């Protein structure tokens, strides 16, 4: 087992995380991966349990009544109380939570109050849709951010760099729903290349599904583009200032190969942390964009559940969303280990 | 800091090591996920559909496929318990009631072909349409009608429609002749057939539970079959070939798509994804005045309820001053986009058969306001729900502009405004603005003004008014009904327990290829009637 150097302090916008240390490259990588997985395996259930407790409890204290939501303002108070009783909503909160937890762990997630269907089917179907949309957005975002960031770094201080900086910051300052509406007006109403409602038919083929998801995916990608491109730019500039870059240039390597083989990989290390965070965000469902485009994703489902105090649906959905986000971050950490073997996680060295 | 997200510190400069197969594999796998998942994702259950984007019209036969947008239904999809309009729409396309109303409030026979009252005015006999069947092929019988209304009015009923029959309907039973049903009333009620057009009254097979997930087995006797319901996306309907008037249902299919809000529906209409959109002021401004519109149908009123037991509203002159301070024409124009008619603080919708006379139409009159208040300046807060914020703001501005009022607003989200409990804002705040669906004049008396009524937000009590209303219900003589209506309206106009600035109507903007108009506004009492509608 190799010894590690003291942990470096994290800089602004740069890397630095709990227990992450940098050490000399060497063996033991698989051991480190195993330790990381073991640690997460212990932490993850605890965090999800806390999330579920908080969600279940918060639903109880916000204004509104599921029975009233279901029966409307013209039902009597007695009818509302009876509806709540029939739907198992009148017992102690702790008892109902434990009942939900037991069911959740055994695969019975209950029935949605609002949609009158199995919670599990609803959540998993919507999760699949959100994963598809998130990955599509991710596939648009990352390559574009890499290209823009590298171009800016190589043209640092020039007109292209300044122009892209202004453009990206301008775009990032516009809220998602504004960007979305503008895209709808242009690409769905004026030139109907894409639909206003991004809900596909069950029989839609893969190409049609991609077409339906394009506008929301573009909006999601654009929302994160500026920060990611800036991270790539900063990392690239730092790598190009390093001695190994000068060595590579002096050796006479072609510029493209210098960037690909020497600059980009080092530049990506600090960017990966942001990429991981965005991946979790994108995969967990984007409520605003999904709602705007009527896209049947998990984010929109959770908004509907929260709006109507659909406690079983909301709690199950939030836990699943949390799980997806945490797994995305774990994947990021694993990629860190593979990209930069000097990285250590945890307190031990 | 997220404990699951460890960010490494910046690496010191060093030459990168050679990539290993494992790393290449993992990175390659990570980058390939988007393609694999996007290509293989599933968007929910349901049959394969044919609707593409960018055009609502379709279908191969004469009628075509009609598309429209709704908000996602808020309530359980069950005809007995539906409470929001979107859910009622879904239910109303598949199921059918005994009677509906046309655009002018006239009664239209549907599953019932005739109705008559006994000599003592206590029994209404309904004759069912011969040959009418549910969409599963079983006949619509008197037993089904009896079971439906027994469920609605039962002691343990959860149906919001139960309140319409409270203290009116005693029992319901099969009639003496074949295909007849008898409704035995607790008191004479001349408008009883109108109650059969209300929400939650579509006829369902005997044995249908109000707890059932009806959309999983959507049996009804309506014009369409529910073929696919996808939460968050929409509903697909096909024509019901067993409908009793199937020859006049010209559409092959009807697609409902769920949109987040009115703006999204407008965009969808502009893009040709749907064939209709509600003609609200924003829509009309955007699309221009030269669009094809449906005939209007009255739907609701937004009333300003004043608690007569709480100062300053204990003084009837204050209530009257508020009523005289409103510029109702401006409210109709700005708040309702002219989809409304000026009202006069008496609860008789303009399409109701009897219209009270002899009342001075209230208009904005600052001098009258000052005279009634005797130079006082009255301060109070109006509490309302966020969906009525525009009306509340206009009312606030108009009242404050008189110089006699200092009005503040408290706008609450729906869940908070209609929250249960003794202190629920919509029933306990001193001044509230609440919308009420179109109902019978005597229903408003019994539910809003009667002593101890559950929804008496004004805490108003007037035995004379209740007595006159009961007399009105009991008589069928046109002259007596007119006289009683005049007296009831005069009391409502004078006492002003609720200020009614306008009666709102709904209107649709229709796509140019929609042929024929709707027999009534798209609402429950109109039966969501799509007969004769087709796409060119």
TrEMBL record, chain A:
GO terms, biological process: transmembrane transport
Low complexity composition-biased segments: 1-10
Pfam family, one: BPD_transp_1
Transmembrane segments: 37-59, 131-151, 163-189, 209-229, 267-293, 313-339
Domain named ABC transmembrane type-1: residues: 127-336
Compartments where found: Cell membrane
GO cellular component: plasma membrane
InterPro entries given in the database record: BPD_transp_1_N, MetI-like, MetI-like_sf
Keywords per UniProt: Cell membrane, Membrane, Transmembrane, Transmembrane helix, Transport
Chain intervals for the UniProt region annotation (Disordered): 1-27
Membrane topology (UniProt): Multi-pass membrane protein
Compositionally biased region (Gly residues): 11-27
Family: Belongs to the binding-protein-dependent transport system permease family.
Protein name (Swiss-Prot/TrEMBL): Peptide/nickel transport system permease protein
Provenance organism: Kineococcus aurantiacus
TrEMBL record, chain B:
Domain of life per record: Bacteria
Gene Ontology CC terms: ATP-binding cassette (ABC) transporter complex; periplasmic space
Classification via SUPFAM superfamilies: Periplasmic binding protein-like II (SSF53850)
One Gene Ontology molecular-function label: peptide transmembrane transporter activity
Alphabetical list of Gene3D superfamilies matching this protein: Dipeptide-binding Protein, Domain 3, Periplasmic binding protein-like II
UniProt GO BP: peptide transport
Domain Solute-binding protein family stretches: 107-439
Entry protein name: Peptide/nickel transport system substrate-binding protein
